[in-house]
Design brief:
By secondary structure, the protein is an alpha+beta fold. It is built from 28 helices and 13 strands. About 2% of the residues have low confidence.
């Protein structure tokens, strides 16, 4: 296929970039070596290399036949990289020229047309690939490309073969690569049963699975004329890739949630195909160009949310940074909708900042109250409220009212609820602790500590290991007090110091907090104490709680502090997997963690191709293991866990 002088393989814009890694190239290289050496030993050996599917475009006089690849891009690109590496390692000029003129270039093409090279890459790989084929100097950026990395791998491996083997390297083509067999399928686009898009989607690639972004790009571009594909790819898709490096699949999922105000599965490999089906169903009547244009309008906003790129307003960027620090990925699609309304001038700068401030308060209060299970299903639905916010005269208060109307699992925790949890909560393992302390410091001093500063650390005031000084200070109940109060909020602080203070005495720690830390959070309600014991820790805990709730995270008292959990309680028996936010997730059987099931709807999981409720499935598994109890009755959620937490423990109390 490569040796004809009148053919150029063309990778169309809807195809993904070249993505084979070194491991896949090593398999390819070993197959070439094995096939060649078996034939050298007198065996008749071939290697099946898979299927190449293409459409031949309309011929243009004076140009080679243009074969548009539908499947086989990764394998043909890898083959070309192997051949050019072989050309560059072989010493014999005649053989070098033969490889170059037979397999890599079209001699009949005059000038430097892209058709001079027998494989036209996608735009993002083309510059580096072209320089490799034409033996041009590579920039550092070129050397980051996968095409160069794999070319270099083949070149290095071929040099080893040249040093170690007795046969000449050209035999690897003659008796190796030339013995690779492929099945070629040429599609006739005038036949509706040979639709390239449908065939592309149904084929199984030997390489990496297509991402959601790959599938969507193919859907939007495949089936259009070559000219239209090029236009949309260069004017829209490349812009999306550049604006959202590494985030395009996540963006597409959140864009869908924002547009449809419905939750969809996370954009991970296991969910790409169902998400793609959702995308096609959602936008089946949309024009590709109009849809791509809309996506490029949303993309800079999403980049501001996820990557921290500037949106032209420092205060907005700061709130988005805070949301990232909180780890609020579940809310990105709703924030995207808010920012789009702001960009469309439905909110002014003051209003969008007020709404983001409410979100920040809401999320931090929920994190303090250890709430969050329902968010991934609930927050996308909030996009329905944006129109109401747009027409409200008091958008901040309107947003608070929307939050106050939420179901129990999405409640704004009241002051009383948070106080009850904070007093005894283990804060040392609390993910947002450093961030919350930094916010308190900023509130106290108008200066936010740099969270990336390696000298900024969480410090136990009463140390994790007690020495005699601390035992004496704590008193006769030192063992119990140390156990009960070590990781509580009042015994933790934020310091900026270049060494651990460990179990230094309290006087030494106060000196560091005062003179070296330069942080108010490490001095307030600490350095004014003569001793540090149970009473001092409780006093500082109460001060921090009051400061958090009244100064840092205040909410309208008339809306929220009157809320009592008992007024909005939902009994355990009415809870569903939707409420817990785990539909689409994998859970495992506690008795045997190798046994897993996928949650498929509000009350069922899929196991061995069948839908089950947890209790009958638990009975079935216990019976298989010969452990079924005499009654044969089980409370299923007590025997399964999600991310290490029993499902029964995920339900609210009451």
């Amino acid at each position: 296929m490569l040796s004809g002088n009148d053919v150029t393989f063309y990778i169309p814009p809807y195809q993904r970039n070249y993505e084979w890694d070194t491991n896949q190239c090593k398999v390819f290289f070993d197959d070439v070596i094995r096939t060649a050496e078996e034939n050298l030993d007198g065996q008749v050996s071939e290697h099946f290399f898979g299927t190449i599917t293409y459409v031949q475009s309309e011929s243009v006089f004076g140009q080679p036949n243009k074969l548009i690849l539908i499947d086989g891009q990764q394998r043909i690109t890898t083959t070309m990289l192997f051949l050019v590496a072989l050309r560059d390692v072989i010493v014999d000029e005649n053989i070098k020229n033969f490889i170059d003129q037979t397999y890599l270039k079209n001699n009949k093409v005059i000038g430097d047309s892209e058709y001079k090279i027998k494989l036209k890459q996608v735009e993002t790989d083309w510059d580096a690939y072209c320089k490799i084929i034409l033996s041009m100097d590579m920039t550092n950026e070129d050397k980051m490309a996968a095409v160069y990395r794999n070319y270099k791998f083949f070149r290095d491996e071929l040099r080893k073969v040249s040093d170690q083997k007795e046969y000449s390297l050209d035999r690897l083509v003659e008796l190796g690569l030339a013995k690779f067999s492929v099945v070629t399928i040429q599609l006739e686009t005038e036949h509706k049963w040979e639709n390239p898009q449908e065939i592309f989607e149904s084929m199984n690639s030997l390489g990496k699975p297509l991402s959601l972004a790959d599938l969507v790009r193919n859907y939007l571009l495949l089936g259009l004329s070559a000219e239209k594909q090029d236009f949309l790819y260069h004017n829209y898709w490349i812009a999306l890739e550049k604006k959202l490096p590494g985030q395009l699949s996540n963006f597409i999922r959140d864009f869908m949630q924002c547009e449809n105000a419905q939750p969809y599965s996370r954009a991970v490999e296991a969910n790409y195909k169902p998400l793609y089906a959702n995308f096609k169903n959602l936008f089946k009547f949309s024009d590709s160009e109009a849809l791509l244009k809309k996506m490029t309008e949303y993309a800079p906003l999403y980049a501001g949310i996820v990557l921290g790129t500037t949106l032209g307003n420092d205060k907005i960027s700061r709130y988005l940074s805070d949301l990232r620090s909180i780890g609020a990925v579940t809310i990105y699609s709703f924030v995207l909708g808010l920012l789009k309304s702001w960009k469309d001038q439905k909110f002014n700068d003051t209003e969008i900042i007020a709404l983001l401030d409410v979100l920040k308060t809401f999320l931090l209060r929920r994190r303090l109250a250890e709430l969050g299970n329902a968010e991934n299903k609930a927050f996308p639905l909030w996009n329905e409220h944006i129109k109401v916010l747009e027409i409200s005269s008091d958008k901040k208060n309107c947003f608070y009212e929307i939050i106050a109307s939420q179901e129990f699992s999405m409640r704004m925790p009241s002051d009383a609820e948070i106080k009850k949890l904070i007093v005894t909560k283990d804060f040392y393992t609390f993910r947002q602790l450093k961030f919350i302390f930094a916010l308190i410091e900023e509130k106290l001093t108008k200066s936010l500590p740099d969270l990336s500063d390696k000298n900024l650390q969480i410090e136990h005031i009463m140390p994790q290991t007690l020495n005699e000084d601390w035992v004496s200070m704590l008193g006769e109940n030192y063992v119990q007090d140390h156990e009960n109060y070590l990781h509580t909020l009042g015994n933790l602080t934020l310091i900026r110091h270049n060494q651990e203070l460990g179990n230094e005495c309290f006087a030494r720690k106060k000196d560091v907090y005062t003179n070296n830390s330069a942080l108010q959070i490490s001095q307030r309600e600490i350095t004014n104490k003569e001793v540090w014991n149970k009473d001092a820790i409780e006093q500082r805990t109460n001060w921090l709680i009051d400061y958090l709730l009244n100064d840092l995270l205040p909410v309208p008292k008339e809306l929220f502090n009157s809320m009592n959990n008992s007024n909005r309680k939902i009994k355990k028996r009415t809870q569903t997997f939707v409420d817990l936010g785990i539909v689409g997730e994998i859970i495992n059987f506690i008795d045997d963690k190798s046994i897993v099931a996928r949650v498929v709807n509000d009350r069922e999981v899929e196991f061995e191709g069948k839908n089950w409720k947890l209790s009958p499935l638990t009975k079935e598994l216990r019976t298989r293991k010969g452990k079924c109890n005499s009654k044969g009755a089980y409370r299923g959620p007590a025997f399964w866990e999600y991310k290490g937490k029993k499902i029964v423990d995920m339900y609210p109390e009451g």
